[in-house]
Fold this sequence. Notes:
The protein is mainly α. It contains seven helices and no strands. Residues 10-51 have low confidence and may be disordered. Bound molecules: heme C. The site of heme C (HEC) has 28 residues, from α4, α5 and α6.
Amino acid sequence: xxxxxxxxxxxxxAVVVFAALSLAGCGGKSSSSASDDxxxxxxxxxxxxxxxxxxxxxSLYDDGPRAGEAPLDAAAxxxxxxxxxxxxxxxxxxxxxxFTGPNLQGVTQRRTAEWMRHQILHPDVMTKTDPxxxxxxxxxxxxxxxxxxxxxxxxxxxxxxKKRDKDGK
Length: 169
Ligand code: HEC
């Protein structure tokens, strides 16, 4: 009896999640706000990645101002700096050049804070479902591991990345 109720509430939850995803997936117009308005090197216009499984046509987390447009929390950035090395990020990410992971210089000008938060907290989900992370995965041929940060720690690391971009070094 309890199991049945549990199973059916799971089903309801799954349906709700699916509905939310499809709504979000269809809601976007196809404009690519991130590119320089149809400059010659713009990526092909109609490009929902036809990839393996459930990669969405449009990122759920990349709408809105870039992370670096928000004011900086300097105290959080100082904590984030420590986490960036203690949590192993430096093993794959260098500043100013690609390494085994993407060059993080400028990342707060190309992504929203929300997108980065998801990438840091759920990198495995992101490469499977988010078109931006999926493309990075294809480029780097490496899955970024989940480094076990809490949400608060992810925010601190993002503040640190913002600070580096603002300082330009
Ligand atoms: C084992 C290597 C590795 C480690 C450790 C790692 N990353 Fe990554 N990271 C990657 C790779 C590879 C990608 C590209 C997506 C993918 O393939 O998973 C990525 C992508 C990212 C991105 C998106 C970059 C962009 O251009 O949009 C951010 C932000 C990021 N990582 C932050 C972090 C932070 C913060 C940590 C530490 C908590 C971390 N990474 C630890 C390999 C790593």
